[in-house]
Amino acid sequence: MSRPAIVLAMEPSRTEHVLPDEILRRLDAIGRLLDPEPLQRLDDARARRLLSEAEILITGWGAPYVGPEIPAAAPRLRLVVHAAGTVKGIIDDSIFEAGIAISHAAEANAVPVAEFTLAAILFAGKRAFRFRDLYVADRNRDRTYPMQREAIGNYGRTLGIIGASRIGRRVIELLKPFDYRLLLFDPMLDAAEAARLGAEKVDLDELMRRADIISLHAPSLASTQHMIDARRLSLLKDGATLINTARGILIDEAALLSELKTGRIDAVIDVTDPEIPDAGSVFYDLPNVFLTPHIAGAIGLERARLGAMAADEVERFTAGRPLLYQIRRQNLENIA
Q: 20 to 30 A from 268, CA-CA: which of 2, 13, 40, 242?
C-alpha cells in the first residue's frame, strides 16, 4: 500500500500535546501528512483542497462535524481516527454508511480516568479530605486523633463499581492489589463474567445499600440519565462516598445536593450537569464535596497518549492489519 494522504481536523487550543512533533513525524513517515496545521472547518478552500486528497482523517476535541457532505468532498477517504474519546456528535451516521472505517482513542483516555478514580477511592477510604479540613481549621489534632479510631481506611471496605465499561474494567484491574470487596452493577454483564473480573454482580439498589464507596462508570444513555436518583441516594449508608468521573447527567443533582447538605455522605465530583455549575451552586462550598473541573480524563502531557494511539491505528490500517479500536454504527447505542 502506498503512503496514504493524512489530514488533521481539531481545535489546536483544545488539543495541545495530542500531536507533539514526534507523533507528527511518525504520521508523516507512515503516510503523507498534507498539512501539520489542523483544519478547524471542513467547508473552506483549504479544507476542500486537503479533503480532495485525504485518505485518512484524524480528528480530535473541537473537530468540525464530519457530516454527510464529507464522502463527496473526500472521495478517497477510507479511515477516520478520532484522537479523543466519544465520536458521538462528531461523526455523522452517513460516514459509517459510506463504508469508511471509524476508530477512536477512548481506551487511551480511559487510562488517566481510571488512575484518577483509584486516587479518589484511596483518599475517600482514608477520609483524607475531612482530615485535611479539620487539621487546617484547628491547627492541632484534637479532632483528627479521635477520627483515626473510626471504622475508616481501605482494608476490607466494600467498593461498588457502576458500569463494567472500559474505564470501569480498568479501575477494577487497578484495584486488584488492594483489600477491597468489590460489588459490580452492569445489566449487560452476567454473574460469571463479574466473578472473572473479581467482583460480585449485584443489582443497583443492593450496591447502593452495601458499598462504602461507589464509583460511577456508566455511559450517558437515555436509560442511564438520573439513574442515581433521590431514592437510591437515600439507600447509601452514613459515611459513604459517591465518586463520579463519568457524566454529570447520571445523577439527579438536585437530589444529590439535598443529600450532601445533610452531611451524612461525601462526594468526589469531576463531572456535573451542566458542565460548569452555576456560580451560586453549593457544590463549590460544601465541605463534604471534593469538586474538580473535569480533569480526570487526559490533560496536559497525558494527551500524547491519545495521539500515539491514533498513530498506532493509522499504522495498523496502512499495514493491512485489523484496527484495535474500530467503532461500528451498532456500537454507538451502548457506548459513552
A: 13
Count, in order, helices (H) and strands (E) of the chain: 13, 13
From residue 140, alpha-carbon distances to 123, 135, 143, 215, 308 in Å are 21, 6, 8, 32, 48
Taking the domain 109-291, which CATH number applies?
3.40.50.720
Backbone angles phi, psi at 232, to 5 degrees: -70, -35
Give pTM, 2 decimals.
0.93
Task: Name which of 298, 300, 252 is nearest 272 in CA terms.
Answer: 252
Q: Per-residue confidence at 113, pLDDT binned at 50, 70, 90?
A: very high
Backbone angles phi, psi at 234, to 5 degrees: -70, -20
Strands (E), the chain: 5-9, 32-33, 56-59, 79-82, 101-104, 158-162, 181-185, 200-201, 213-216, 241-244, 266-269, 289-291, 326-327
From 3.20.20.70, 3.40.50.720, 3.30.428.10, 1.10.260.40, which CATH number describes the 5-104+300-334 domain?
A: 3.40.50.720
